[in-house]
Amino acid sequence: MIGVNCPEISHPDLGIKEQPYGREAKEYTTKRLLGKKVWLELDTQERDRYGRLLAYVWLEPPSSGSEDEVRSKMFNARLLLDGYAQVMTVQPNVKYADLFVKFQREAREQGKGLWGLAPAAPSTSKGGEAGYIGNARSKVFHRPDCEWAQKIAPHNRVEFRSREEALEAGYRPCEVCNP
Ligand SMILES: [Zn+2]
Hints:
This is Nuclease. The protein is 25% helix and 13% strand.
Protein backbone atom coordinates (compact mmCIF):
# COMPACT_ATOMS: atom_id res chain seq x y z
CA MET A 1 0.00 0.00 0.00
CA ILE A 2 1.52 3.24 -1.17
CA GLY A 3 2.40 5.94 1.32
CA VAL A 4 1.86 4.07 4.57
CA ASN A 5 3.94 1.88 6.81
CA CYS A 6 2.38 -0.34 9.44
CA PRO A 7 4.28 -1.45 12.53
CA GLU A 8 5.84 -4.85 12.03
CA ILE A 9 4.65 -8.13 13.37
CA SER A 10 7.50 -10.44 14.24
CA HIS A 11 9.65 -12.04 11.54
CA PRO A 12 12.23 -14.02 13.51
CA ASP A 13 14.03 -15.13 10.35
CA LEU A 14 14.65 -11.49 9.37
CA GLY A 15 15.62 -10.42 12.86
CA ILE A 16 12.51 -8.24 13.12
CA LYS A 17 10.84 -7.96 16.46
CA GLU A 18 7.20 -7.19 16.89
CA GLN A 19 6.62 -3.45 17.10
CA PRO A 20 3.94 -1.79 19.22
CA TYR A 21 0.56 -1.96 17.52
CA GLY A 22 1.80 -4.40 14.86
CA ARG A 23 -0.69 -7.07 15.81
CA GLU A 24 -3.57 -4.60 16.00
CA ALA A 25 -2.73 -3.25 12.54
CA LYS A 26 -2.70 -6.76 11.12
CA GLU A 27 -6.04 -7.62 12.72
CA TYR A 28 -7.63 -4.39 11.55
CA THR A 29 -6.42 -4.92 8.00
CA THR A 30 -7.55 -8.53 7.93
CA LYS A 31 -10.97 -7.61 9.25
CA ARG A 32 -11.49 -4.80 6.77
CA LEU A 33 -10.00 -6.41 3.64
CA LEU A 34 -9.97 -10.19 3.78
CA GLY A 35 -12.46 -11.60 1.29
CA LYS A 36 -13.63 -8.11 0.28
CA LYS A 37 -13.74 -6.69 -3.21
CA VAL A 38 -11.44 -3.69 -3.58
CA TRP A 39 -10.35 -1.35 -6.33
CA LEU A 40 -6.66 -0.67 -6.87
CA GLU A 41 -5.33 2.67 -8.06
CA LEU A 42 -1.73 2.77 -9.20
CA ASP A 43 0.63 5.74 -9.09
CA THR A 44 3.71 6.38 -11.24
CA GLN A 45 5.39 3.02 -10.63
CA GLU A 46 3.45 -0.19 -10.89
CA ARG A 47 5.95 -2.16 -8.82
CA ASP A 48 8.85 -1.42 -6.52
CA ARG A 49 12.32 -2.77 -7.08
CA TYR A 50 11.39 -5.87 -5.11
CA GLY A 51 8.58 -6.66 -7.53
CA ARG A 52 5.79 -5.77 -5.13
CA LEU A 53 2.65 -4.22 -6.62
CA LEU A 54 2.21 -0.62 -5.39
CA ALA A 55 -1.36 0.57 -4.99
CA TYR A 56 -3.97 2.69 -3.28
CA VAL A 57 -6.69 0.35 -2.06
CA TRP A 58 -10.21 1.70 -2.48
CA LEU A 59 -13.03 0.07 -0.52
CA GLU A 60 -15.49 1.57 -2.99
CA PRO A 61 -14.67 2.88 -6.45
CA PRO A 62 -13.69 6.56 -6.29
CA SER A 63 -15.56 9.10 -8.38
CA SER A 64 -14.22 12.59 -7.74
CA GLY A 65 -11.12 11.72 -5.74
CA SER A 66 -11.99 14.53 -3.32
CA GLU A 67 -10.47 14.67 0.14
CA ASP A 68 -13.72 13.48 1.69
CA GLU A 69 -13.76 10.53 -0.62
CA VAL A 70 -10.15 9.65 0.14
CA ARG A 71 -10.96 9.84 3.86
CA SER A 72 -13.96 7.60 3.72
CA LYS A 73 -13.20 5.12 0.95
CA MET A 74 -9.45 4.62 0.68
CA PHE A 75 -7.96 2.01 2.98
CA ASN A 76 -4.45 3.54 2.94
CA ALA A 77 -6.04 6.70 4.37
CA ARG A 78 -8.10 4.76 6.92
CA LEU A 79 -4.91 3.16 8.27
CA LEU A 80 -3.47 6.62 8.89
CA LEU A 81 -6.66 8.21 10.23
CA ASP A 82 -7.27 5.36 12.66
CA GLY A 83 -3.64 5.29 13.82
CA TYR A 84 -2.63 1.90 12.44
CA ALA A 85 0.18 3.21 10.24
CA GLN A 86 2.62 6.03 9.75
CA VAL A 87 3.23 7.98 6.57
CA MET A 88 5.99 6.61 4.39
CA THR A 89 6.54 8.70 1.28
CA VAL A 90 8.62 7.10 -1.44
CA GLN A 91 9.25 9.03 -4.66
CA PRO A 92 7.87 9.10 -7.28
CA ASN A 93 4.59 7.70 -5.96
CA VAL A 94 3.33 10.77 -4.16
CA LYS A 95 -0.15 11.49 -5.52
CA TYR A 96 -1.75 11.63 -2.05
CA ALA A 97 1.37 12.34 0.02
CA ASP A 98 0.21 15.75 1.28
CA LEU A 99 -3.19 14.43 2.30
CA PHE A 100 -1.57 11.49 4.05
CA VAL A 101 0.62 13.80 6.12
CA LYS A 102 -2.49 15.76 7.08
CA PHE A 103 -4.34 12.58 8.09
CA GLN A 104 -1.40 11.39 10.17
CA ARG A 105 -1.27 14.74 11.97
CA GLU A 106 -4.97 14.44 12.81
CA ALA A 107 -4.53 10.93 14.16
CA ARG A 108 -1.53 11.99 16.23
CA GLU A 109 -3.33 15.00 17.68
CA GLN A 110 -6.27 12.82 18.62
CA GLY A 111 -4.08 10.09 20.09
CA LYS A 112 -5.57 7.48 17.78
CA GLY A 113 -4.19 3.96 17.72
CA LEU A 114 -0.42 3.79 17.92
CA TRP A 115 -0.29 7.53 18.70
CA GLY A 116 -2.06 6.86 21.99
CA LEU A 117 0.62 4.49 23.21
CA ALA A 118 3.29 5.47 25.69
CA PRO A 119 5.85 7.97 24.38
CA ALA A 120 8.36 6.71 21.85
CA ALA A 121 6.10 3.83 20.84
CA PRO A 122 6.17 4.59 17.12
CA SER A 123 9.71 3.56 16.40
CA THR A 124 10.77 6.25 13.96
CA SER A 125 9.85 8.97 11.56
CA LYS A 126 9.20 12.40 12.95
CA GLY A 127 10.31 13.94 9.69
CA GLY A 128 14.05 14.27 9.81
CA GLU A 129 14.65 14.71 13.54
CA ALA A 130 16.53 11.43 13.71
CA GLY A 131 18.85 12.39 10.85
CA TYR A 132 19.73 9.23 8.99
CA ILE A 133 19.71 5.56 9.92
CA GLY A 134 22.46 3.18 8.85
CA ASN A 135 22.68 -0.58 8.74
CA ALA A 136 26.08 -1.57 10.10
CA ARG A 137 25.90 -4.90 8.33
CA SER A 138 25.00 -3.76 4.80
CA LYS A 139 26.64 -0.29 5.11
CA VAL A 140 23.57 1.33 3.60
CA PHE A 141 21.96 4.42 5.10
CA HIS A 142 18.34 5.56 4.93
CA ARG A 143 15.95 8.34 5.73
CA PRO A 144 14.34 7.51 9.08
CA ASP A 145 10.94 7.02 7.48
CA CYS A 146 12.23 4.50 4.95
CA GLU A 147 10.57 1.13 5.29
CA TRP A 148 13.98 -0.51 5.12
CA ALA A 149 15.37 1.67 7.89
CA GLN A 150 12.60 0.40 10.10
CA LYS A 151 13.52 -3.19 9.39
CA ILE A 152 17.11 -2.91 10.58
CA ALA A 153 17.78 -5.17 13.53
CA PRO A 154 18.50 -3.07 16.63
CA HIS A 155 22.05 -4.37 16.97
CA ASN A 156 22.83 -3.26 13.40
CA ARG A 157 21.22 0.14 13.71
CA VAL A 158 23.44 3.23 13.55
CA GLU A 159 22.32 6.85 13.60
CA PHE A 160 23.94 9.70 11.70
CA ARG A 161 23.24 13.38 12.15
CA SER A 162 23.88 14.17 8.51
CA ARG A 163 24.31 12.65 5.08
CA GLU A 164 27.94 13.70 5.09
CA GLU A 165 28.57 11.86 8.32
CA ALA A 166 27.10 8.69 6.83
CA LEU A 167 29.11 9.00 3.62
CA GLU A 168 32.31 9.66 5.52
CA ALA A 169 31.69 6.54 7.55
CA GLY A 170 31.67 4.58 4.30
CA TYR A 171 27.92 4.08 4.01
CA ARG A 172 26.11 4.33 0.68
CA PRO A 173 22.63 5.78 0.17
CA CYS A 174 19.60 3.51 -0.03
CA GLU A 175 18.19 3.25 -3.54
CA VAL A 176 14.62 3.25 -2.28
CA CYS A 177 14.51 6.37 -0.10
CA ASN A 178 17.37 8.27 -1.78
CA PRO A 179 18.69 9.95 1.35
ZN1 LIG B 1 15.98 3.47 2.46
